[in-house]
Amino acid sequence: MTSGKLWTIAWRDLMRNRRRSFLTLLAVALGLAMLMTFNGLIAGTWDDVIQNNIRLKTGHIQLRAPSYEEKKVSLKWQDLLGKPDDLAASLRGMNEVKAATPVLWVSAILSTGDESIGLQVFGVEPASSFYDPVRESLVGGQFLTADDRDGIMMGQPLANSLGVGVGEKVSLSLVNADGNADEGIFTIRGLFATGIVSYDESAVFMPLDKAQALARTGNRSSAVVVLLNQQDDTDRVAAAIQSQSVETLTWRESNQFVLQTVETAMSFYVILDGIVMLIVAVIIANTLLMAVFERIREIGILAALGMKGRQIMLMFLFEALILGLSGVALGIVIGSGGVAYLSQVGIPLGAAASAAGNNFALGSAMYATFAPVTFMWLSIWTLIFVLVAALYPARYAARQEPVDALRSL
User: Fold this and answer.
1) Kind of pairing, strands 169-175 and 181-192?
2) What per-residue confidence (pLDDT) applies to 407?
3) 333 vs 396, which has greater pLDDT?
4) Alpha-carbon separation of residue 6 from 292, 315, 327 (angstroms)
5) Which of 95, 123, 146, 386 has its CA 20 to 30 A from that of 268?
């Protein structure tokens, strides 16, 4: 018997019990759709975290003094970059570079009349396009100017928690480069809301010159942050500006903790994917096994007429393949719809975004993204699980002796 006839028989057998076949197909489709939506949401969330870190803090490339340690936020002269303005100016001349700007990071305590909170001060060049995302997220007051000697900006959530607003004065305390405690009174010039909760709740901006004067670092900075026009140019540009006197870090190295967390988490997600596929496989196996029991006499007749066990087995595998292919096709449609919906609407995170910490620049909502390669492999593995699950009922049917099968009813 040809394969074409086996396909026809398999299709007709599935149509005998259309409700059961449709429900099985639907189970495959919903399982794959759930996997696509979940993986699209995870991919979108992690990509958001990394891109938010790049555009708001790390850039695509950072240049630092070799001895600088980010965790310590050191202000010692030997740990800071000398002549960062000259270094940034030379980088801006490269075609691949969108922005290059010195930045000074300072750990400080901000105090109002009633409350105090630890945070990070960013000494920045206000005119740099690197801070366009912050400039565009301004919700009150005005952006800083380079000659502002006593102005700062902070996130609106931080201002709300402290009960302060534009025009009000706050105190900033820090330990300067000399190792001495210092304090300054500053006026809030503007409030921003980037949507990155951990960032809006813990960042304060002031002009670079003022931050250097307050921290007594001279004209030195913690780093020169470089933003590129194309992320794919990172390695090439980093190699071109490599120097023994300056440490060059790409966005991967600056976000190493995030990337390691993603890698660890993905192994857990693979286990979840496997569990869902296993459930789908059990449903397929159950459906085909029921079909075998219902048609045991018919299988005996086919065997008595000369159909080989291999052909009987292939007939049931074709039934599984039809269910699998149809379910995968429908699942891709439903899953794509789910990903498209979550890419626009998202899932609100609420307080969870703030609890993620400063290393994870989570927005106020999780958004999905299309990951074609991931979706392709999910579809292939779902189909493989379906076919593997069909092997047992197919082999069971193929091993039936004609005489025993005919006596079964």
Assistant:
1) antiparallel
2) 55
3) 333
4) 16, 5, 20
5) 386
Q: Rounded to whole angstroms, how far apart are CA atoms 205 and 128?
A: 13
Cα torsion at 88, 89, 90, 95 (round to 10°)?
A: 100
CA 243 to CA 237: how far, in whole Å? 12
Work out whether strand 347-348 and strand 365-366 pair parallel, antiparallel, or are unpaired.
antiparallel
What is the spatial distance between Cα 389 and Cα 5, in angstroms, rounded to a whole number? 23
Q: What is the pLDDT of residues 140-160, one digit of tens each?
A: 889 998 888 889 999 888 888
What is the token pair recorded at 191? 């409030």
Return the closest-CA partner of residue 194 out of 99, 57, 312, 76. Answer: 57
H/E segment holding residue 356: none
Mean pLDDT, residues 297-319? 69
Contact 376, 264 (CB under 8 A): no
CA 360/CA 378 separation, integer angstroms: 27
Question: Could you give the dihedral angle defined by the CA atoms of residues 76, 82, 84 and 85, in that order, rounded to the nearest 10 degrees?
Answer: 130
Residue with the two structure tokens 């857990």: 268
Q: Is the separation of the CB atoms in 183 and 169 below 8 Å?
A: no
Max intra-chain CA distance, the chain: 99
Domain ranges of the chain: 3-53+259-407, 66-245
Tokens at 217, concatenated: 């670092």
Amino acid identity of residue 141, one-letter, is G
Distance between CA atoms of residues 81 and 246, nearest Å:
8
